[in-house]
Amino acid sequence: MRITRPPRRLALLGVTAAAGLSVTALALPGAAGAVTPHPERPTIVLEHGAFADAASWDGVVKRLQRAGYPVVAAANPLRGPANDAAYLRSVVDHIDGPVVLVGHSYGGTVISQAAVGLEDKVKALVYIAAFLPDVGESSLGLTNKFPGSTLGQAIEPVNYTLPDGGQGADVYIKPDKFHRQFAADVPADKARLMAAGQRPIAAAALEEKSTKAAWRTIPSWSLVTTEDRNIPVAAQRFMSQRAHARTTEIDASHAVSVSSPDAVTRIVEKAARTVR
């Protein structure tokens, strides 16, 4: 199935999970336009990827809440698949009832690892312009497996030293490259805000190999972005086909949750409607 990008709409509302907490995004009682979550609907947990933050889901959160879904937009530490998956599992553990996990970009790597062993609770996986790694694969390795990514020319590492003497490097997209590289179909003023607030990823996280692959046991959906300059479209198609994911393609940039929240919401709702 293939769809073209719908008209852009202003993203108005987002909710993040504070560090150490899981927060269900609910409309406040009495608020204008408030919607009470449907008691039989699964909780949607949204995991952002590198160079973004939980606010990148704002437009999707707004639409899912309006449809009556409880939503959590989790804060991804971006330190490595094992670390980040453990954190996401702690968020899921504090949610009652069934869950649909949604991962964007590197967030796909995280949900693939986090959901293993939680099949009784996590009923569907949704990959949005995301990695669907198998055991032994890394995000960087999958990116380099196919031509098309220009991310290498747009990023800049920043070295750091921790109080205990530990050292490492975080990776950012250069602000002057961000719009074209990450969010070409997002208005320029919005892209500048995204560039300023981007969350860096540990360089080592992109090379860390996955040890689990939940898409092997949990039904999966995938939204492939054909104008993506981060993850080659051929890589997205390869991973989606291998996982037997129900796949939709859209002419959009890597920042599809910002530029096309309607399309992202539709595929999340398709997955959610299968949950019983």
From TrEMBL:
Residues 44-265 form the AB hydrolase-1 domain. SUPFAM superfamilies: alpha/beta-Hydrolases. Transmembrane segments: none annotated. The keyword Glycoprotein does not apply. It comes from the Bacteria. Keywords: Hydrolase, Signal. The keyword Cell wall biogenesis/degradation does not apply. Residues 1-27 form the signal peptide. PROSITE patterns: TAT. InterPro entries: AB_hydrolase_1, AB_hydrolase_fold, Sec-Metab_Biosynth_Hydrolase, TAT_signal. One of its GO terms (molecular function) is hydrolase activity. PANTHER family: AB HYDROLASE-1 DOMAIN-CONTAINING PROTEIN-RELATED, ESTERASE_LIPASE_THIOESTERASE DOMAIN-CONTAINING PROTEIN. This is Alpha/beta hydrolase. It comes from Streptomyces tauricus.
